[in-house]
């Protein structure tokens, strides 16, 4: 039996492998798998893309000598699936290969799995351990867990502010605040989230593309709040280059890769938006809106993670950044000339 320290080391390796799928597996979770024999790794893999082979399949395929599998110990970051989806059940694969020991980080909250994979493995005589590095696994797959457990996307708020607390110039004009490293980080964040949301004023004054240009990765779905359909049709958001969803109180037909969703004025705005995104299978959303959008979400507690980029630059006046007065600081670091503060709700 391997030592507890060895189990932790192998599960950390599996989590590192899982992370390599960031931005490519959604709405599936990030999953990594390591297979060991006599305390050495004989195979490893991760879920690389939605619709592609799962982590266990890739790890088993990487084992040079399959005769070792019945004497191996498998480490996987999420409970092996037990149902037919895009691919066959991974629990069945491990049973077929004669594996005798499986160590699992997190149980799968998806109702299609939800413990059934563990039950199937144990019914086949496989020894299963669960909960190894459970909190680390939940953080890695926080988008997936939030989507499954709360039936809404994982919401990341982001803004950049000057040292004296401003987001923009006096008339909402866009001014350079962050440095180069911070701008690259923002494009990385865009690639990691499934959707990106802005309000009317930000869309109007900044005319953003909301694309990933300074980091390799997929463009997120653009989400725009335009209650009265007042944004100019020539704006970049309507160029049709990526899927765009406009939430409005007015009816308009979809056109040129832009979908219009009419909301009820009698109901709260953001619960309607997040429910609509959930129905569209959107697992996470990065909010790059202005103070009206940000303050509304902060006030209602409708957020999961907050990233504030603070510049050393002074503006002397303008549109004030939110002042949430939060605890729950998870990370504080420097990105070039800027500071990054990450909070969790």
Automatic annotation (TrEMBL):
<feature type="binding site">
    <location>
        <position position="288"/>
    </location>
    <ligand>
        <name>substrate</name>
    </ligand>
</feature>
<keyword id="KW-0479">Metal-binding</keyword>
<dbReference type="GO" id="GO:0008270">
    <property type="term" value="F:zinc ion binding"/>
</dbReference>
<feature type="binding site">
    <location>
        <position position="54"/>
    </location>
    <ligand>
        <name>Zn(2+)</name>
    </ligand>
</feature>
<dbReference type="InterPro" id="IPR002734">
    <property type="entry name" value="RibDG_C"/>
</dbReference>
<keyword id="KW-0862">Zinc</keyword>
<comment type="function">
    <text>Converts 2,5-diamino-6-(ribosylamino)-4(3h)-pyrimidinone 5'-phosphate into 5-amino-6-(ribosylamino)-2,4(1h,3h)-pyrimidinedione 5'-phosphate.</text>
</comment>
<feature type="binding site">
    <location>
        <position position="160"/>
    </location>
    <ligand>
        <name>NADP(+)</name>
    </ligand>
</feature>
<feature type="active site" description="Proton donor">
    <location>
        <position position="56"/>
    </location>
</feature>
<keyword id="KW-0560">Oxidoreductase</keyword>
<feature type="binding site">
    <location>
        <position position="206"/>
    </location>
    <ligand>
        <name>substrate</name>
    </ligand>
</feature>
<keyword id="KW-0521">NADP</keyword>
<comment type="pathway">
    <text>Cofactor biosynthesis; riboflavin biosynthesis; 5-amino-6-(D-ribitylamino)uracil from GTP: step 2/4.</text>
</comment>
<comment type="similarity">
    <text>In the C-terminal section; belongs to the HTP reductase family.</text>
</comment>
<feature type="binding site">
    <location>
        <begin position="290"/>
        <end position="296"/>
    </location>
    <ligand>
        <name>NADP(+)</name>
    </ligand>
</feature>
<keyword id="KW-0378">Hydrolase</keyword>
<dbReference type="GO" id="GO:0008703">
    <property type="term" value="F:5-amino-6-(5-phosphoribosylamino)uracil reductase activity"/>
</dbReference>
<feature type="binding site">
    <location>
        <position position="90"/>
    </location>
    <ligand>
        <name>Zn(2+)</name>
    </ligand>
</feature>
<comment type="similarity">
    <text>In the N-terminal section; belongs to the cytidine and deoxycytidylate deaminase family.</text>
</comment>
<comment type="pathway">
    <text>Cofactor biosynthesis; riboflavin biosynthesis; 5-amino-6-(D-ribitylamino)uracil from GTP: step 3/4.</text>
</comment>
<feature type="binding site">
    <location>
        <position position="213"/>
    </location>
    <ligand>
        <name>substrate</name>
    </ligand>
</feature>
<feature type="domain" description="CMP/dCMP-type deaminase">
    <location>
        <begin position="5"/>
        <end position="129"/>
    </location>
</feature>
<dbReference type="InterPro" id="IPR016192">
    <property type="entry name" value="APOBEC/CMP_deaminase_Zn-bd"/>
</dbReference>
<feature type="binding site">
    <location>
        <position position="202"/>
    </location>
    <ligand>
        <name>NADP(+)</name>
    </ligand>
</feature>
<dbReference type="GO" id="GO:0008835">
    <property type="term" value="F:diaminohydroxyphosphoribosylaminopyrimidine deaminase activity"/>
</dbReference>
<dbReference type="InterPro" id="IPR004794">
    <property type="entry name" value="Eubact_RibD"/>
</dbReference>
<keyword id="KW-0686">Riboflavin biosynthesis</keyword>
<dbReference type="InterPro" id="IPR050765">
    <property type="entry name" value="Riboflavin_Biosynth_HTPR"/>
</dbReference>
<dbReference type="InterPro" id="IPR002125">
    <property type="entry name" value="CMP_dCMP_dom"/>
</dbReference>
<feature type="binding site">
    <location>
        <position position="81"/>
    </location>
    <ligand>
        <name>Zn(2+)</name>
    </ligand>
</feature>
<feature type="binding site">
    <location>
        <position position="190"/>
    </location>
    <ligand>
        <name>substrate</name>
    </ligand>
</feature>
<dbReference type="Pfam" id="PF00383">
    <property type="entry name" value="dCMP_cyt_deam_1"/>
</dbReference>
<feature type="binding site">
    <location>
        <position position="210"/>
    </location>
    <ligand>
        <name>substrate</name>
    </ligand>
</feature>
<dbReference type="Pfam" id="PF01872">
    <property type="entry name" value="RibD_C"/>
</dbReference>
<keyword id="KW-0511">Multifunctional enzyme</keyword>
<dbReference type="InterPro" id="IPR016193">
    <property type="entry name" value="Cytidine_deaminase-like"/>
</dbReference>
<dbReference type="InterPro" id="IPR024072">
    <property type="entry name" value="DHFR-like_dom_sf"/>
</dbReference>
<protein>
    <recommendedName>
        <fullName>Riboflavin biosynthesis protein RibD</fullName>
        <ecNumber>3.5.4.26</ecNumber>
        <ecNumber>1.1.1.193</ecNumber>
    </recommendedName>
</protein>
<feature type="binding site">
    <location>
        <position position="174"/>
    </location>
    <ligand>
        <name>substrate</name>
    </ligand>
</feature>
<dbReference type="GO" id="GO:0009231">
    <property type="term" value="P:riboflavin biosynthetic process"/>
</dbReference>
């Amino acid at each position: 039996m391997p030592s507890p320290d060895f189990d932790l080391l192998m599960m950390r390796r599996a989590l590192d492998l899982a992370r390599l799928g960031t931005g490519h597996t959604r709405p599936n979770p990030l999953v990594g798998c390591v297979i060991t024999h006599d305390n050495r790794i004989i195979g490893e893999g991760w879920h690389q893309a939605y619709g592609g082979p799962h982590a266990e399949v890739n790890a088993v395929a990487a084992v040079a000598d399959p005769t070792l599998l019945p004497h191996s110990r498998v480490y996987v970051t999420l409970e092996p699936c037990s149902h037919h989806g895009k691919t066959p059940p991974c629990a069945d694969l491990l049973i077929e290969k004669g594996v005798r020991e499986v160590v699992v980080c997190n149980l799968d909250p998806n109702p299609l799995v939800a413990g059934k994979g563990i039950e199937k493995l144990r019914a086949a005589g496989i020894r299963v351990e669960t909960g190894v590095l459970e909190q680390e696994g939940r953080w890695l797959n926080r988008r997936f867990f939030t989507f499954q457990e709360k039936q809404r996307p994982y919401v990341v708020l982001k803004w950049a502010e000057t040292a004296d607390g401003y987001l923009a110039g006096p008339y909402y004009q866009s001014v350079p605040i962050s440095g180069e490293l911070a701008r690259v980080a923002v494009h990385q964040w865009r690639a990691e989230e499934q959707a990106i949301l802005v309000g009317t004023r930000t869309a109007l004054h900044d005319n953003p593309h909301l694309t990933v240009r300074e980091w390799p990765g997929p463009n997120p779905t653009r989400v725009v709040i335009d209650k009265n359909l007042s944004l100019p049709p020539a704006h970049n958001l309507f160029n049709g280059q990526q899927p765009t969803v406009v939430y409005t109180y007015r009816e308009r037909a979809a056109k040129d890769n832009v979908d219009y969703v009419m909301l009820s004025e009698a109901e709260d705005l953001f619960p309607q938006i997040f429910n609509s995104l959930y129905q569209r299978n959107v697992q996470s959303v990065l909010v790059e809106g202005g103070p009206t959008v940000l303050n509304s979400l902060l006030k209602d507690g409708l957020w999961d993670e907050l990233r504030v980029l603070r510049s050393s630059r002074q503006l002397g006046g303008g549109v004030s950044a939110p002042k949430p007065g939060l605890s729950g600081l998870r990370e504080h670091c420097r990105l070039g000339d800027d500071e990054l503060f990450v909070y969790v709700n």
